[in-house]
Amino acid sequence: MTTDARPAPQPRLNVLRTIAIYKLLKVLLLLAVAYGEQRLQDASLTAKLLNWATERPSGLEHRAVTALLEWFSGLSASGVQELRIVTFAYAAVFATEGIGLWMQKRWAEWLTTIITASLIPLEVWELFLRPNIGKVAVLVANTAIVIYLVWHVRSKGRR
């Protein structure tokens, strides 16, 4: 009687990998923000965006584009640099979490639990200051991730 010592194959998509995809989507979003910030340095693009928003005076895109351009134009050179650093730092953290979770590493479960839980109070505060549906969705998703990971790490540690 021979015993096969190989571990059972891991499912292709489980909760950890779903969380990993969520984290990696955040990386793509942050890289898109960094790319957009770089492109806004081009004055002709800024003018095109303003013209486009002006043609839609009553639409949501008018308010969003105008507010974004006003906010961005008000940043100092050091403010733009800080924005870049924060954007890339968050992207690096989310990439580390996402790749580690995809590979189903225990350290990534702990890292994601700690970092995601530490951001929840800031998300609650931001939601309190300027509520919107997107902030509610992110808060709900991150809270669910923390609850699942705490349960997962604790139940895995008892085996």
Descriptive tags:
mainly alpha, 2 domains, 80% helix
Task: Tell me what the structure shows.
With 159 residues, this protein is mainly α. The protein folds into two domains: 13-103; 105-154. The chain is built from six helices and no strands. The chain has helices spanning 15-39, 43-54, 60-73, 77-102, 106-129, 133-158. The mean pLDDT is 85.
In quaternary terms, these chains amount to single chain
How many domains is the backbone divided into? 2
The profile of the biggest β sheet is: none
Helix proportion range: over 70%
What is the distance, rounded to the nearest whole angstrom, between the alpha carbons of the first and last residues?
27 Å
Query: How many distinct beta strands?
Result: 0
**How much strand content do the residues show?**
under 5%
Structural class call reads mainly alpha
Mean pLDDT: 85
Query: What gross morphology would you assign?
Result: elongated
Order of helical and strand elements? HHHHHH
Individual helix count: 6
Kindly provide the radius of gyration, computed on alpha-carbon positions and rounded to a whole number of angstroms.
21 Å
Low-confidence stretches: none
